[in-house]
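Posting for a labmate who doesn't have an account.
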Amino acid sequence: MKKQAIDLLTCNDLSKKCFEPLIECYKREVSAQTDFSQFKEKFYKQLTEGQRALFMFYVYYNHVSKSLAEFYWWSAYFIAQPKTWSAIKKSIKYFKDDPLLLLLEKMELELQQYHPPDTLETFTVTREQLEQSKELQTAMNSLYIIFENIAPLSIRKINDCIKKNLQEFVEIEN
């Protein structure tokens, strides 16, 4: 990435611009894999600490930000993968984003009340469950509203972190 291109980016574009090459590389490489689980760990370990944090933040954010149903389902899906959920929370800690971390912890507690699966093998959560339980829908809606309010602040924190530690996120071309 050229330094001038980074300087011209708006705050919101910086983190997305740094995430795009990571996800493109991930998608390109994953299509050629036969052992997906080992690939995910190998790919993740190749990233810098900052890139890992950015990658996991956007993996979560890009899935859950689309709607209330997606927020509910994807959060449950990630929680059913303890390593992934732990990595998502670690990414939020990396960016020192206490409000988002608190929200993730509230999500965990809320979903525990509805007996979410601990693994993908027992994962049966559906998006339609929100329509079937008014209590669940109310709880998730409350958390989703908080998420919608704090997500822009989270992205701003990430952008500020990238600006202060650019070498942790991108390789600068001359």
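Reply:
Got it, the structure tokens are right above this. The domain at 3-168 is CATH 1.20.1420 (A middle domain of Talin 1).
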